[in-house]
Amino acid sequence: MSLPRPAAAPMATLAETTAVTLDDVTRTYSSRSGTVHALRGVTHAFRTGSFTAIMGPSGSGKSTMLQLAAGLDRPTAGAVTVAGTPLAGLDQTRLTELRRTTMGFVFQSYNLLDALSVYDNVALPSRLAGAPVARQAVLHALAQVGLGDLARRRPPELSGGQQQRVAIARALHTRPQVLFADEPTGALDRRTGRDVLSLLRAAVDGSADDPGQTVVMVTHDPLAASYADEVLFLADGRLVGRLRHADAACIATTMSELEEG
Length: 261
Description:
Helix content is 36%, strand content 26%.
């Protein structure tokens, strides 16, 4: 499977229309068995206001790609730019500040604090950033995910699907430019997973008075990937293919070809 080369765009135009850019990014690390090439010269621009799914066989580099794009790991070579800011020159303090102001995160494990109420979990990123917490904004984020009446509950009192909705409300509350999701439906049943994907899709689509966000999601599920505008396929650390506006059957076929190859 060959990856079509996009037409070159002027740098100014590219910066204005992309939320995250990976330019010839490589990530290697050492293990007992030798050097591991987790990512090999990947170049891709995630367009502002788009929903992108990243797929590939186990060990293909998809989680590494997301971690590098989010500044959670540093590339061995190449450059990563988020919201117009190159990550290479940032120390950990400035990286943390950029993540708090520009990015949101949703993971399979939810990462909620059991001792805090749902309301306080959603408000936590603002408090950590030293920003004032707008009560109505927190309640609005919870209402967006259908949990407006559960603000006083604590995570252990909620179902897995409800906890994932809290995690999405927390990610959406600060209006991040980019939302990174790593297997957000992996621990959910199919119906609840569809609800979560619909929330991510709605975050991208936005509304007339609320512009959409950019979502980058790692998933192994073709149905989940079908909610995205574009699906990127990785194999052996390389970007080897892409599909746009594809249905689950087409995505599953492509994945099968990769795994057999």
